[in-house]
Amino acid sequence: MSTELIPLKNNLKNMSDIATLKQMVCSKIQLIPNFQSLKEDVELILYACNTLENYHVDISANKIDKKSLVVVAFAELFALTEDEKIILSNTIQFLFDHARIKQVKKIVVLGNRITSWFYKKLA
């Protein structure tokens, strides 16, 4: 009997989604060379926020506080102090208030998938 056939629901699914998203943000940041030196870099913060905003998974986005998720991911990567967490949270809020965190339009995502599929068929 496979346990994969038993789906997670309610709080367990929400906790699993949060862990998946946090791991995804951390792994994307860790792919950047010398990411440790970019601890307070606004561009890295914006990259993490946009990555999270545009990650398409089967989640209920309303149940997940994306700002706190980015703060938790950064705290795990950089061992932030409480003051640094507050500064990071304020920076994320600033980026959000000034419309810098944007979701990629669905037509662009669809276009990229079609183009990728087309090139695979030609190759």
Which labels suit this protein?
globular, 123 residues, mainly alpha
Task: Describe the SSE topology.
Layout: H1 10-30, H2 42-54, H3 66-78, H4 82-97, H5 106-122
Helix pairs in contact: 1-2, 1-3, 2-4, 3-4
What percentage of the residues does DSSP assign to strands (E)? under 5%
What is the C-alpha radius of gyration, as a whole number of Å? 17 Å
Order of helices and strands: HHHHH
The major pleated sheet works out as: none
The total of beta strands comes to 0
Instruction: Give the number of helices.
Output: 5
Shape: globular
What portion of residues is helical? 55-70%
Q: Average the pLDDT over all residues and give the rounded result.
A: 87
- The total number of structural domains is 1
Quickly give the structural class.
mainly alpha
Distance between the termini: 40 Å
Residue stretches low in confidence (pLDDT < 50, at least 5 long) are none
Q: What does this molecule look like?
A:
The chain has one domain (3-122). The mean pLDDT is 87. It is 65% helix and 0% strand. By secondary structure, the protein is an all-alpha fold. The chain is globular and about 50 Å long.
